[in-house]
């Protein structure tokens, strides 16, 4: 699924090309890889993004989660 956010440096449209989790001393840390139209490329913590971008990524992740079917017992 294509996700566009503003580039953290220049504000140009940037595509989130990867989402991944790395371990840290404080527990798992969610990261993204981003590339913008002006050629900037980053791998960064999601929490370093502006809050509106974080919300967009959280909403998209929630839509991609499989639904939990209810058991009829």
Structural account:
With 73 residues, the chain is α+β, with helices and mostly antiparallel strands. It has a single domain, classed as Thrombin, subunit H. 19% of the residues lie in helices and 41% in strands. The chain is built from 1 helix and 4 strands; from the N terminus they run ββββα. Strands 1-2-3-4 form a 4-stranded antiparallel β-sheet, with no helix packed on it. The longest helix is centred in the C-terminal third of the chain and has 14 residues, at 51-64. It is globular. The mean pLDDT is 89.
Distance between the termini: 36 Å
Low-pLDDT residue spans = none
For the biggest sheet, the summary is: 4 strands, antiparallel
User: Taking Cα atoms only, what radius of gyration do you get, to the nearest Å?
Assistant: 15 Å
H-E order: EEEEH
Name a few traits of the molecule.
73 residues; alpha+beta; Thrombin, subunit H; four-stranded antiparallel beta sheet; 19% helix
What does the secondary structure layout of this molecule look like, with pairings?
Elements: E1 4-6, E2 13-24, E3 27-36, E4 41-45, H1 51-64
Antiparallel strand pairs: 1-2, 2-3, 3-4
């Amino acid at each position: 699924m294509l996700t566009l956010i503003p580039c953290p440096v220049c504000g140009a449209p940037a595509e989130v090309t990867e989402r991944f989790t790395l371990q840290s001393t404080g527990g798992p840390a969610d990261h993204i890889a981003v590339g913008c139209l002006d050629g900037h490329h980053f791998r960064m913590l999601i929490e370093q993004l502006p809050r509106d971008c974080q919300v967009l990524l959280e909403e998209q992740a929630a839509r991609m989660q499989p639904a939990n079917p209810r058991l009829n017992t």
